[in-house]
Design a protein that fits this description.
The protein is of the alpha/beta class and 267 residues long. It has one domain: NAD(P)-binding Rossmann-like Domain (Rossmann fold). A seven-stranded parallel sheet has the order 3-2-1-4-5-6-9, with helices on both faces. One of its GO terms (molecular function) is oxidoreductase activity.
Length: 267
Amino acid sequence: MKNYFADKVVWITGASSGIGEALALELARQGAKLVLSARRADELERVKAATTLPADNVLVLPMDVTDFGLAPVSAAKVIARFGRIDMMVHNAGISQRSFVKDTSLEVYQKLMDVDFFSTVALTKAVLPYMTRQKSGHFIVISSVAGKVGTPMRSGYNAAKHALHGFYDSLRSEVFDDNIRVTVACPGYIKTNVSVNALDEKGNKYGQMDANQAKGMPAAECARKVLKAAQQDRKEVFIGGVTEKAAVYLRRFFPSFLFKMVRRNVPE
């Protein structure tokens, strides 16, 4: 039986490390054709080599996702190479570790640009091709933070919440064109997301969170994301019992959850 992802053209942002790299390796194993994007061309080349795919089946496309004008240009390059885009994986992102009272507006702007507006720009660039081919799938890597706000992540939480609103609307608008949307909400995944997070001045936080260090391996997360996409899941939560419980507490027992969250505010 042919693998679901075999020969599908899948474009992944944030593909140079973490969940993005894990998705690239798993998709390669399942026979997809890949477009790998991130800022670091050398790291993308490393990931390309690790996929062991034929060179013609991988396009390394370095880009800064916050250069919104590059989105249509980059989409055109993918079409020129492969002729179609079957899946757009919005994985590029950056987190935050700072209090609201200390955080500059410029930091909030950067968080929204990377975590929200970049996905909008790329979606609008890719959508006409998917509409024309009458098929496509947007896989959006959100977070449990897109459902539950926690201390020192106000801008990150806001950007992830925004993703849900935008892609819920898009899902309904493009259904008749056979275009699907899956929003994945990982909890604690063992990546460098906290190390690379922004502090109140926009500098690198530089510390590994304890929960992150004990989190789910990125490869396992990637497999769960792709399984959800294959099943056409609209939204999926990936992580441990605690993270998943927080989502349901937020819906049914919000006061109890808010009390728990307050206990975790650092001194």
